[in-house]
Design goal:
The structure is a single chain. It is built from twelve helices and 14 strands. By secondary structure, it is α/β, with parallel strands linked by helices. α3 packs across α6. Bound molecules: pyridoxal-5'-phosphate. The site of pyridoxal-5'-phosphate has 14 residues, from α3 and α4.
Amino acid sequence: MADAVPYLDLAAQYRDIKPEIQAAIDRILETNQYILGSEVKAFEGAFASAHGATHAVALNSGTSALHLALLALGVGPGDEVITTPFTFVATVAAIGYTGATPVFVDIDPASFTIDPARIEAAITARTKVILPVHLYGQAADMDPIMAIAERHGLPVVEDAAQAHLAEYRGHRVGSIGAIGCFSFYPGKNLGAYGEGGAAVTNDDRYADAMRVLRDWGQTTRYHHVVKGYNYRMDGLQGAILGVKLPHLAAWTDGRRRVAEAYRAALAPHDVRVPAEMSYARHVYHVYAIRVADRPACQQALQAAGIHTGIHYPIPVHLQEAWAELGHARGDFPHAERAADEVLSLPMYAELTDDQIARVSDAVLALGTTARG
Ligand SMILES: *Cc1c(COP(=O)(O)O)cnc(C)c1O
């Protein structure tokens, strides 16, 4: 049998850029810039301009970016933040870190992102921020979200952890709302070799606030004006990300090539492939099809040497960790159905035509019952 097709192959990407990475690591070790430093600063500038923003604040994770974005906007105990239950748990955890309460709004089943038509009913006197997630690499429907936010005087924080270089009506995500939050977790579209994240903004005050908060709340050394955090980016990660960022557009094109090949092979046979919305340039962090009997499908694909993922099997409102919110099955039916049906196919720029064909053939071999 041919080699298995892994869900992700980070070593394949590394082999293409190894000399550049080795040189960057060497520069950091020779100059001892282990925490923040000149390479992190250079990366901040490049990353901000890649997303149409004036500032990027480099951090130790995407979760930290969400946490500091909410703090910079003054979110705290007693406040409510509106978001989607169909996301990675970090979105909701970051709201919890501030002491605020997450308020969920169901998704649009076509896009998997928050349904703008349901947001207004969730707004109360305590609402402080609207936090859409650009899930799987596709922008949430930002125009109606921004219109609602403006009508109610609310800032918008974009969870763009999965959406580097994604576009909404020709605008890069991250700088549409007040603050955009990115993750550089190794498997993300732009991945560090460890943890990393960034918050981007066009507002000097938010950028300043997040810079102080990430570094123990100090303005000058040992002068702490607020209770801050140790959320700084490593020098090594900044240097590595600085090497990788110029390759990101090509890697994104590669992901879109894979997505188009899957679509062309699967959609004519009624496999429920992901929709690229008319307003979006999707960057396919995740390529999730919908299937009826997911355990059987995943098992059959595994037996055929095709590794898959599930993003995510339990919506956050049904997670034990968030039982305090008092939700039950049936509260957000579109999120719940998506959580039951989604199956993520292998997705990375280095997938070969042969691998794509093997994945597609294996999915088609599942038959109509499994495809549902
Ligand atoms: C990865 C991710 C995060 C958290 O980023 P980390 O860098 O892992 O802390 C937040 N939100 C979403 C949607 C993510 O996919």
